[in-house]
Amino acid sequence: MKTNPPLRRLLERIFIVLVLFLALATPPPAAAASNCQAGDATWVKAGDGDWSEASAWSTGSVPIASTHVCLDPTNATQIMITQLYSAYSVYIGPHVLLEVTCASQVSQAGLNVVDQVTIEKAGELMLDTQDTSCSLGVNVSHQAGLTNNGLIYIANTPGQTLPRKGLSGVVKNNGTINVFGGFLFTGTPGASVINNGIVLVGAPIEIDGRLDQNSGEIRYFSKDTREDLSIHGTFNYNGGHTTGPGEPRIYGTASFNKDAFGEVFLEGNLGSDIPSNIYLTSDKVINLVRDTTNYGYIFLMNAPQTGSGLGASGDFYKFTNRGIVDVMTPSYLQTNFENRGTLEIDPSGSLLVGSPSGSITVVNEGWIQASGNITVEAGVRFSQVWGYLKIKLPAEMRFTGSSFTYVNGTTDFAAPIFTSAKIAFQLPPPTSTLGTGAFGMDLWGVNTVTSGTLPANVAMSVAGYGSQANLYVPDGATVLGTLHLISMPIAPNGPAWLVCGNGGGRLYLKGLLTTSGLSTEVHCSLNVDSAASILFDSNSTTALTSGVVTSGTVTLSTGALLSMTGDYMQNGGSTSLGGQASELEANKIVLNGGLITGIGKLKVKNGVQNKGGKLNQNAIQVLPNSPAGVNQPLAEDGIAINGNYVQGPGGALAVGLSGTPSSGAYGRLVVSGQAAVDGRLELYRSNGYLPAVGDQYSVLSAASLSGAFASAALDWGGVKLSYEPSGVDFTVLTIILRQFLPALFH
């Protein structure tokens, strides 16, 4: 159907009238609101352009150091900076991408801003170049700095060496900083970076000033690039999150503040050649996501009810300390820890070592000094290797089901150790050049060693300095080295005790045990190996609640007292009673072999049984006592037995003669109880003395006597034995001259 032309023209006129009417009736759209002020240099070019285009600016000239720049066009606009320019302030609106890049043969491109830079939401600042010889940056001089509510993007062409480019001055990030392929250098000494947004670390970031991590996030990219965040000033961690597989390196001071919430996930290197400080407070935990090394200074400090410490995320990684970790308040360690620096527990601090989800290893190759308590929980393998471990009063070191291994080093326990751990003492590696005795360990206080071996090159001292010192061995231990019990008689010092458990605890001595002091007590059963020796010092009072089995050397110096409730059994070696005031007290003394010699006292309840050894009654020393060299005896010879004496067919009684009968300088055995004799009587000259024919000596006296010696052995003459109801005497009958005058028989 065809339309009537007049009607069509009429309809067209009506449509035009309606459009005009609507156009007149509808108000024009309002202009978009702008953040620009009168007098600002605004971008008036329609579309993209170069900062250097004078005609693109509302002022008709390129901005200078006194110019307020406002970039707030209504359409998406990209503005390029290819050289170095200046401005007083810069505003980057939501539709603007301001890109700093290098033109050909330009060594530096960037923007120096006197007052402040503001990047609005959806606004962008990009630092990007393909020329590695060119440095880029935006420098803000004023404390107002750069406020980012949008995006800062640091880029670099793949495969290119990273050029130096970045931000300088105070940076307040509320948006996103994406360091993707370049190098971001931000901050100056005294400046700061405040992060309430997101910092994406895909390439190195270096901060010379202060980084305040508040409610935002520091997120590392892939584990392959090994990106790192280097802080040369101060790192204040106030909250938010730090995650990813990067390498944070703190060369300055880091503080994890108590009023914030969150965990810190760290790996890589903390600090380096320049000392760094890390303050970990309150509910903060350093959780490792890879092996981490500290080269700086870490402070663990917190409110006691919350705790702070070092831990691991997922699998247990290792925290290596090559710097200083200072535990200032109650804290904990829940990761594998290798100390090659200094770990210090302050008097106000304490350290709980253990993990709720598995076992960990702690190795000390550095310095650990504790004035606060250390508690090592079950599942921890604690090794002292080549380092120094010192526990100071009033601190305690407690082991609860863990293992404690000494490989080498120096250990000074000036405080108690409480442990249910198995403590092992291991020999150093064959390459050790320290030699025997290189490793010393002092135990002061109440200490416990449940088992293990003290090696030949280790000297352990249990010293009662300031209070009583105990070494408790409930299960048994072996001493290949040297064990010193030092009891200090002067107040406020105290005794030193070696205590074994009642359930069969025993000390196997293959090295040296020494005692000194008036109150030294060995509440142990001792097995003394043939290569071992015990030295009880002068005026030492040593009590043993159990017995001794020895084939080694036991020496009681003048005035020493060795007392035990058990038996003293000697299978070999020697026991020396060094003076008349020395005393060996036991339930029973059984001499199966070896030698008991001296001029002291044997005090027994159930007698001395000499089955196969030798009782030598001569230790007298005759010394020159005048310029003429006249020999004088210092004291009478002999051994006194407070109890009974039984000598079997395999036993021997040795009597030395060093003076006339009236001088008393000869051996004798004085038995307060009954004496029953058999075996051998050995008579020998001492100190070159020659008896005279007719001399009569009393060699044994007792309350009663039974039996007789099977034989008398002497090579200097003939004697006659006389047996009385209370003892044995002998009279010299002849002297064999050929022994003393050999020249007459040649």
Describe this structure in words.
The protein has 746 residues and is mainly beta. The chain has two helices and 84 strands. The chain has a 31-stranded parallel β-sheet that branches. Strands 26, 28, 30, 31, 33, 34, 36, 37, 39, 40, 42, 43, 45 and 46 form a 14-stranded parallel β-sheet that branches. Strands 48-51-54-57-60-63-66-69-74-77-80-84-83 form a 13-stranded mixed β-sheet, with no helix packed on it. Strand 83 (717-724) and strand 84 (727-735) form a beta hairpin. It is rod-shaped. Residues 7-24, 26-32, 258-277, 427-438 and 619-636 have low confidence and may be disordered.
How would you sum up this structure in a few lines?
The protein is mainly beta and 746 residues long.
Topology (SSEs and partners):
Elements: H1 5-25, E1 41-42, E2 49-50, E3 68-71, E4 77-81, E5 84-92, E6 96-100, E7 108-119, E8 124-127, E9 135-140, E10 145-148, E11 151-154, E12 165-168, E13 171-173, E14 176-179, E15 184-186, E16 192-195, E17 198-201, E18 205-207, E19 210-213, E20 217-220, E21 228-231, E22 234-237, E23 241-243, E24 247-250, E25 253-256, E26 264-270, E27 277-280, E28 285-294, E29 297-300, E30 308-312, E31 318-321, E32 324-327, E33 330-333, E34 336-339, E35 342-345, E36 350-353, E37 360-364, E38 367-370, E39 373-376, E40 380-384, E41 387-392, E42 397-399, E43 403-406, E44 409-414, E45 417-419, E46 422-425, E47 439-443, E48 446-448, E49 453-454, E50 458-463, E51 469-473, E52 477-479, E53 482-486, E54 496-500, E55 506-509, E56 512-516, E57 520-523, E58 525-528, E59 533-536, E60 541-544, E61 548-550, E62 553-556, E63 561-564, E64 567-570, E65 574-577, E66 583-586, E67 588-591, E68 595-598, E69 601-604, E70 608-610, E71 614-616, E72 622-624, E73 631-633, E74 639-642, E75 645-647, E76 652-657, E77 669-671, E78 674-677, E79 680-685, ...
Parallel strand pairs: 1-3, 2-4, 3-5, 4-6, 5-7, 6-8, 7-9, 7-10, 8-11, 9-12, 10-13, 11-14, 13-16, 14-17, 15-18, 16-19, 17-20, 18-21, 19-22, 20-23, 21-24, 22-25, 25-27, 26-28, 27-29, 28-30, 28-31, 29-32, 30-33, 31-34, 32-35, 33-36, 34-37, 35-38, 36-39, 37-40, 38-41, 39-42, 40-43, 41-44, ...
Antiparallel strand pairs: 72-73, 80-84, 83-84
